[in-house]
Amino acid sequence: MDEKDFIRHCGATFKAAVKFIDWDRAPDGTAGSYYHPFSFPPYLNGYAPAYHVNTRLFAGYLGEYCKTVGVTPVLDVVVDAERDKQGHVSSLTLERSGDHPVEFVIDCSGFRSLILQQALEEPFVSSQESLPYDRAIPMPVDHVDPDGPLPPFATSTGLSAGWSWNVQLWSRRGTGYVYSSAHTSDDEAMAA
Ligand SMILES: Cc1cc2nc3c(=O)[nH]c(=O)nc-3n(C[C@H](O)[C@H](O)[C@H](O)COP(=O)(O)OP(=O)(O)OC[C@H]3O[C@@H](n4cnc5c(N)ncnc54)[C@H](O)[C@@H]3O)c2cc1C
Fold first, then answer.
1. Strand ranges inside 54-171, DSSP E
2. Considering only CA atoms, which of 73, 68, 118 is closest in space to residue 97?
């Protein structure tokens, strides 16, 4: 995959770190800030794959790219997964195209966890005790200065019941508020 082509088509910017703002306070009460690389990315073919991307554009780009390497994407909704006698997933039932035999499945259905939790009955293990954040309000917005520099980091700003994030892409800023519903109401979070 050509990196420049990928960047152009996915609105990508470089991500070297996350800047944490107001997650701690100095003894005099002033807000602190620090950068954290989150995790050192592994190198793939000499590239460090640390980017901010517009995930919708990236999904479309991957769909087009996979055709060029002989993979046929099937866009459909998974409604069921069938298991063979050994308990392995052997076919998926798709909404429009019906039964689809499979040899290898990666469950990318997020919180729906269609294969892992529903078909394979893996229990959901909650981390609520140490990670109380259970709500998010995403708000993509225009750049304040469309011709201004794009920082190679995202920011995460501590707020009373969670944090707001700010991810600068080529075309827009991805912002929003992640919060704990036990510590604020949805209306208060929207107002914040
Ligand atoms: C508010 C917020 C901000 C975040 N910010 C960042 C960030 O800045 N950087 C970062 O790295 N991570 C971020 N994350 C985390 C990141 O979004 C998730 O870790 C990641 O999206 C998980 O990917 P996934 O593929 O497991 O699930 P998802 O991204 O949730 O994708 C699941 C997909 O499955 C599809 N699907 C569901 N059911 C079916 C079905 N029956 N048939 C077919 N398709 C189905 C859904 O439509 C969806 O497209 C953020 C998360 C949130 C909530």
1. 78-83, 89-94, 98-101, 135-141, 153-159, 162-168
2. 73
Rounded to the nearest angstrom, the gap between the alpha carbon of residue 32 and the centroid of all alpha carbons in its chain is: 26
Ligand 1 close to Cβ of residue 136 (< 6 A): yes
Query: 136, 163 in Cβ contact below 8 A?
Result: no
pLDDT tens-digit series, residues 182-191: 999 999 998 8
Domain ranges of the chain: 12-38+127-191, 74-119
CA dist., res. 38 & res. 30, Å (int)? 24
For residue 110, report the distance from its CA to the centre of ligand 1, in Å. 5
Q: Band of the pLDDT at 25, cuts 50, 70, 90?
A: confident
Tokens of 102: 């499979």
| Residue 110 CB less than 6 A away from ligand 1 | yes
CB 53 within 8 A of CB 6: no
> pTM of this prediction?
0.82
CA of 128 to the centre of ligand 1 (A): 19
